[in-house]
Automatic annotation (TrEMBL):
This is Chloride channel protein. GO terms for molecular function: voltage-gated chloride channel activity. PANTHER family: CHLORIDE CHANNEL PROTEIN, H(+)_CL(-) EXCHANGE TRANSPORTER 5. Its main location: membrane. Residues 1-68 are annotated as: Disordered. Residues 658-722, 754-812 form the CBS domain. The keyword Membrane applies. Keywords: CBS domain, Chloride, Endosome, Ion transport, Membrane, Transmembrane, Transmembrane helix, Transport. It is found in: Endosome membrane; Membrane. Belongs to the chloride channel (TC 2.A.49) family. The keyword Ion transport applies. It comes from Cyclopterus lumpus (Lumpsucker).
Length: 818
């Protein structure tokens, strides 16, 4: 029940938290050192409309006389019913507030035309908000794609006709390109050509090498410096924090305007630096920032944290939609991976927002090929039943690598947190960038961006391809071609063997460097690096299968379906299956991942291989560790997240988990009458609890209700300022009618309006597995424990998480927040 988020101090601080928060008061969240004073991005919800759960009486307090109640709807109390930073919302209260608001609007709509129009606009506001979120996120994603493509090419050269053109666009209008060297044109010159006048020779290679490293270091330095100086929350993927926020946790500023601006800029710089990271995960964070900012335009989303989280769930779908050009996959990703509460209405709105975002991105056409992603492919050759064996092998590889990667990355991140390494984030980024650039440049497959590498590996070789991966020996009979534009299986040539060696080295490099890159203080996604590892492994296996089929087409394995001169094996398909396997092994996605990959390829016939490989990778990875990478980082950072997929198998009871324990002091409670303002303030100052049970008396311990610490302090502070006669000796009563008082005594302070008269309770013998289910499905912050109607103790979400950590032999003190 002890929550560090509720800080004691002067009562005035609750009205203006940013005015009293010490600039030196820091906390380490997601590996970033954060300042509590950055609250302007996401101000506390205004809550003049706090009402009792029944809706019959608004919360209030004494006005100018002891019996005069102030209606907050007419005289709002700033901050009442809101939450402190790093605390969990009360889902039940927020949904109750929204139902009361909707009921009031519906009733008023029958009274006048203006009220009817207000009701219609209120119902339409959700769809309008989804439209704006889709437009804004799609436009930002298009700008990020264009800028990242340009800066990535800038490391290798410059366009003479316009420095703002990337390599591909620069050579589009050139008439001097050849088919074999389509990337070479006089308008585009490498840095060696610009500096030395020649592109040949060892000196030119060294110049290009050094310029590549210098640009990479410059981009990385700018990225980490901007994050550190302006928006510490902009680092990392953002998906672990988004999952935690969607479960009801408050992290002020994480989805604010500064985080959006800095994350957008630094994401471009980080991707362009050549680090082994992707932009797909951070795009989910960017889309959620857009949604959170636009929520402030609509009262019903600005003033209700639960409604806002419905919008953020839809925004997560938008992020994946623009990242992969997969609107349906985005909706399923939000449902399967990040959302905590996903009603049917949110499903429809997520679909609409993802559609708008994909349409916006398609209109921008960032890659100039009318596709939403760089690695869109279309395969034509069918797959055969025998190929399920290598597909399942790729699934096993993906599961093994996913489990190994999670353990290695978490160990590295824990080392970063617990050693001096974490004190030098800028130096860490620069060292990793320099190491990546030095090792990546000599190998063409590590030098190119992750998306370009995946596009190259997914590519199905045709007659028109000059890629090294298509370096087969020329066919003796050109009439023997495969299906469509693809060629029949051919023997591997010297170019292909060279490419395979380079890919093998790239696989080792990517597997190792991604472990230390993910989690640094720059925006870093994991989708593209994971897919790249799997695509390399898949392409290697695919070429091996292709050569096996070519030289052994008479064996019993291939006989009957792979005749000489036929296009039997598609290596690009193996790359795609491998990419899905490794991404599934790392994130434990299943349905959404298959749909995303299907939308990338546009081929229905490849769903079965994708499903087989994805399920295999999940089974293998789950056998080695139940957590995906995002759940592992949530646990590493101590967030209060009750994983819906995790089962509680222990036979303990609530009395074993509740507080106070036998050795603890008695539970701090308020009595419904008999306590003075001074006594209440002393109790609040001497504890750090987020709320207090209200009982009939200390002797009976009969439960009356529950009052939040924040509401209590705000109400007392407001009464001192606005009501005459309220002093420390004034009686505080939580009953409907104030008791009789002496004529010369101060007037009582009646605070029944801020009491939750229907708090959730369980008995002391309720099994903990039932209690955990109640917390998960209702999103509770705390639950009171009673015995025959008498209050015994309290259980908070933090208590449950600590108990589950102890059962799993983990450190219970790793749970930092409630």
């Amino acid at each position: 029940m002890d929550t560090s988020g509720f800080r004691t101090g002067s009562l005035d601080s609750l009205h203006h938290p940013s005015d009293v928060d010490d600039d030196d008061e820091m906390v380490d969240i997601a590996g970033a050192t954060l300042d509590f004073s950055h609250t302007d991005d996401d101000p506390p919800l205004g809550s003049g409309d706090y009402e009792e759960r029944g809706g019959s009486r608004a919360a209030g307090m004494n006005g100018n006389g002891p019996n005069k109640m102030v209606d907050p709807l007419e005289d709002p109390l700033p901050g009442l019913g809101t939450y402190e930073d790093f605390n969990t919302i009360d889902w039940v209260r927020e949904k109750s507030k929204d139902r009361d608001r909707h009921r009031e609007i519906t009733n008023k709509s029958k009274e006048s035309t203006v009220a009817l129009l207000h009701s219609v606009s209120d119902a339409f506001s959700g769809w309008l908000l989804m439209l704006l979120v889709g437009l804004m996120a799609g436009a930002l994603a298009g700008g990020i794609d264009i800028a990242a493509h340009w800066l990535t090419d800038l490391k290798e050269g410059l366009c003479l006709v316009g420095f703002w053109f990337n390599h591909e666009h620069c050579c589009w209008t050139s008439n001097e390109t050849t088919f074999q060297e389509r990337d070479r044109c006089p308008q585009w010159q490498s840095w060696a050509e610009l500096i030395t006048g020649t592109s040949e020779g060892a000196f030119a290679y060294i110049v290009n090498y050094l310029m590549y490293i210098v640009w990479a270091l410059l981009f990385a330095l700018l990225a980490v410096a901007l994050v550190r100086a302006f928006a510490p929350y902009a680092c990392g993927s953002g998906i672990p924090e988004i999952k935690t926020i969607l479960s009801g946790f408050i992290i002020r500023g994480y989805l604010g305007k500064w985080t959006l601006i800095i994350k957008t800029i630094t994401l471009v710089l980080a991707v362009s630096s050549g680090l082994s990271l992707g932009k797909e995960g951070p795009l989910v964070h960017v889309a959620c920032c857009c949604a959170n900012i636009l929520c402030h335009l609509f009262t019903k989303y600005r003033k209700n944290e639960a409604k806002r989280r419905e919008v953020l769930s839809a925004a997560a779908a938008v992020g994946v939609s623009v990242a992969f050009g997969a609107p349906i996959g985005g909706v399923l990703f939000s449902l399967e991976e990040v959302s905590y509460y996903f009603p049917l209405k949110t499903l429809w709105r997520s679909f609409f927002a993802a559609l708008v975002a994909a349409f916006t991105l398609h209109s921008i056409n960032p890659f100039g090929n009318s596709r939403l992603v760089l690695f869109y492919v279309e395969f034509h050759a069918p797959w055969h039943l025998v190929e399920l064996v290598p597909f399942i092998l790729l699934g096993i590889f993906g599961g093994l690598w996913g489990a190994l990667f999670i353990r290695a990355n978490i160990a590295w991140c824990r080392r970063r947190k617990s050693t001096r390494l974490g004190h030098y984030p800028v130096m860490e980024v620069l060292v990793v960038t320099a190491l990546t650039a030095v090792l990546a440049y000599p190998n063409s497959y590590t030098r190119m961006s992750g998306a370009e590498l995946i596009a190259e590996l997914f590519n199905d070789c045709s007659l028109l391809d000059s890629s090294q991966l298509c370096g087969y020996k020329p066919p003796t009979n050109t009439s023997k071609t495969g299906v469509g534009n693809s060629l029949a299986d051919r023997p591997a040539g010297e170019g292909l063997y060279t490419a395979l060696w380079q890919l093998a080295l790239a696989l080792v490099f990517k597997m190792m460097i991604t472990v230390i890159t993910f989690g640094m203080k720059v925006p870093s996604g994991l989708f593209i690096p994971s897919m790249a590892v799997g695509a390399i492994a898949g392409r290697l296996l695919g070429v091996g299968m292709e050569q096996l089929a070519y030289y052994n087409h008479d064996s019993f394995i291939f006989k009957g379906w792979c005749s000489p001169g036929a296009d039997c094996i598609t290596p690009g398909l193996y790359a795609m299956v491998g990419a899905a396997s490794c991404l599934g092994g790392v994130t434990r996605m299943t349905v959404s991942l298959v749909v995303i990959m299907f939308e990338l390829t546009g081929g229905l016939e490849y769903i079965v291989p994708l499903m087989a490989a994805t399920m295999t990778s999940k089974w293998v990875a789950d056998a080695l560790g139940r957590e995906g990478i995002y759940e592992a980082h949530i646990r590493l950072n101590g967030y209060p997240f009750l994983e819906p997929k995790e089962e509680f198998g222990h036979s303990s009871l609530t009395v074993d988990v509740m507080r106070p324990r036998r050795s603890d002091p008695a539970l701090a409670v308020l009595t419904q009458e008999g306590m003075t303002v001074g006594e209440v303030e002393a109790l609040v100052e001497s504890t750090r609890y987020s709320g207090f049970p209200v009982v009939v008396s200390q002797e009976s311990q009969r439960l009356v209700g529950f009052v939040l610490r924040r509401d209590l302090l705000i109400s007392i502070d407001n009464a001192r300022k606005r009501q005459e006669g309220v002093v420390s000796a004034s009686q505080v009563v939580f009953t409907e009618h104030a008791p009789a008082q002496a004529d010369d005594g101060p007037p009582p302070l009646r605070l029944r309006g801020i009491v939750d008269l229907s708090p959730f309770t369980v008995t002391d013998h309720t099994p903990m597995d039932i209690t955990v289910d109640i917390f998960r499905k209702l999103g509770l912050r705390q639950c009171l424990v009673t015995h025959n109607g008498r209050l015994l103790g309290i259980i908070t979400k933090k208590d449950i998480l600590k108990h589950m950590a102890q059962i799993a032999n983990r450190d219970p003190d790793s749970i930092l927040f409630n």
